[in-house]
Each structure stands twice: as C-alpha cells, then as structure tokens.
C-alpha cells in the first residue's frame, strides 16, 4: 500500500494545511507524526532554556488537540522523541513509506535538519516534499525574487499589495486513511527537562494551545465581540485580552494560518464593512511575511551580532548584573520592569512593551542584542524564529529599520501608552 509520512512541525492544524492535503491526495494512506526534537529542549549558549515551560505547555496542548482532531477523521498522531534526522528515517523504514511531506523551513537550524533528512531519505529511496504554509503571500507569487526583495518593509508592502495575490485556502480533509495508530503518548514537562509554571492570573490572556482554541479566539475577536472593528485604535494598549487579537501564539505554532485569518477578515468586512482596523490586521500579517522572506534572503545573518547591517556601534558583550536586573524587572525604569515581570510571569508581552524593553536593552544597557533575543526565545509563548530575531535586529539597528538606530524615550512612551499608570500598577509591587 502506498504510504506517506506527514511530518507536523509548526503547522499543527487540519484547516488550510497544504502539506496534509497534498499527502492525502498522493497517497493511499498517511501516517501523521510529530517529533519532539531533543535539541529544542536544551540550554542555549546564553544559559536559557531554548524552549521554556510556558511555550512547551502550549505546544503539548496543541499536539493533543491535533491528535484529537485527527482521530475524529480516522487517523491519529505518532509521537517521536529524539533527533528528527534519526527518528524520521526510522519511521519511514517502519511503515515502508515512499514519501515524507513536511512544512518548508527558512531559518538556519531548521533548514540544516531539513537538508540532512532529505539526504538520508534519498538513500532510502524516499522523497521529502516540502510546502510553504506559514505566510500570507506565497514566495513564488511575490513581484520580486527572494534575492531582490526590498529590505525596507514599506517598499516591500506597497509592491506586494499592488502586484501579488493571496492564494485560496485549503479546506480541512473530511476523512483520512491511516493504518491503526496507537493512542498518543505525550511527554510530560518533566520528560522535557522543564518544570510546570502556572501563568499568573493577571495575564492579558490565558493562552491554551490547539487549532480548536485558535478558531474559538478568532470567532470571539471577530464576531462575538467585534473587537476587530477597533483594532487599530486599541492595539497599543497594554492591559486586558481584547486590545489586540492575541493570535500570535497560535500563528507561531501553526494552529491557524495567516490565510485563514485573512479570509475571515474579508468575511467580516462583507458583513460589517471595511475600515482602517480590518486593514491593519492584514498589515500586521504582512510584517510576519516580511521577516520570513528576509530570513530566506539573508539566512544566517540575522543571528550574527552585525545582523544584515554594514556597521554596528560597539556595545558591551555581557553584563551579568544588568542582564539579571532586566530579566527580573528591577531596572531603573518602572515601565521596563512592569513589562519584563509580565513576560516572566505569563510568557507574553504586548508589542509596545517588546519594542521598549528591547530598545532599553540595546541602548541603555548596551548589551549584545542577541542575548535579549535568546531570552525572548526561551520565555515567549508566541516565539517565532523569524519575527523574534528579525524584530530584535530591527531594534538593535542591524536589521531592516531604514532609520538604523531607533531609540525609544522610555519615559515618554510610558506617558503616552500607560497614561494613568494602570499597567505599571498591575505588575509592579506596591511601594
């Protein structure tokens, strides 16, 4: 029987998943798998967990939900643990699969694993076929080649909006042919060398992983509360669940696709009318695309101290005391402290907060920006390799910012975006 492996990674969904749909179309039966890559649960060179407990918990919930949804269609998820370059060939051999379908990667570490697996599978006479499933616009549909993508977002956006089209979404499959797949055996946080950390009750939102939760959030934000209609006016607020869409964690894990959100924005506009807010959510999805395409263009450069810049102002390598103070929220800036405590206690921080604490790290503390980016990687539930490292390079003046050295006046920002001090009162100890 013609069997294929569908290797799920950060595309943990059934709806608008081209990888899954193409695998079903080209095979008699499929075996969905997820591999817990042991390298994702180690310490980074800066001493942080590469995947912290908040994100790991969200990941486990997302995988459980994917398995639940697959079983409703007659399939299920096989869980692998170890190195994908060892475990994927093993599962291919076990099921005598002739093809592996997977999401296409763009970042350095993920791309290396993908290449290694491709070479190993080739020797087994098994093909690895990858699909781009993370962006709103498909790379092949852009009005420029990857090498010629403009480095300035506004130029990229205007040309793309004018000359490129967004592809139609893929409906979820109605049934899936699979061999009998045993009940799922998920690792615990302890198995992943992590300890459970409860999200603080003051959190802007209590994230729960999975495609079902992603669709619930979309339905609530668009149709139940209609908060989408005022998104542009409220997106820079800092307290509560509804000042922004909060889709980022589900997008990062691939529980929902940008195109699904886009198609629902269009439906909302038909029902309630288009305005600056409905456009602005699509505008933010374009930012995600831009960073992902920048990674395709520059590959490893976003992980270098100099980024994609020609020159970079000197900074201190690492100041342990200043780093600890920044992480713990005990710096001289109350606004920075409130944001950093929110991140530490919840795994989330507003977009406005992220820009300010990154600017403070780079400009006031003058430390190697990559240390800050690595801490965010560990701590954020919504960590996305391209958005995280792309945004940090941007704030450090070595990325895509045409102004090159963007400096935030933190006290002014606090007055502008936390006028009454509501956010600071929420997160800082009472004096």
Written account of the structure:
Pfam families: DNA_photolyase (PF00875), FAD_binding_7 (PF03441). Keywords: Chromophore, FAD, Flavoprotein. The protein has a five-stranded parallel sheet, sandwiched between helices. It contains 17 helices and five strands. The chain is 47% helix and 7% strand. It folds into three domains: 1-133, Rossmann fold (3-Layer(aba) Sandwich); 135-166 and 211-303, Serine Threonine Protein Phosphatase 5, Tetratricopeptide repeat (Alpha Horseshoe); 305-427, DNA Cyclobutane Dipyrimidine Photolyase, subunit A, domain 3, CATH 1.10.579. Helix 9 (258-272) packs antiparallel against helix 10 (276-298), helix 10 (276-298) crosses helix 15 (385-396) and helix 12 crosses helix 13 (351-364). It starts with a strand and ends with a helix. With 431 residues, the protein is α/β, with parallel strands linked by helices.
Question: What's a concise summary of this model?
Answer:
The protein is of the alpha/beta class and 431 residues long. It is 47% helix and 7% strand. It has helices spanning 18-26, 53-71, 84-95, 108-123, 153-163, 211-224, 231-234, 248-253, 258-272, 276-298, 320-328, 334-346, 351-364, 369-379, 385-396, 410-417, 422-427, and strands at residues 3-8, 29-37, 78-82, 99-103, 127-131.
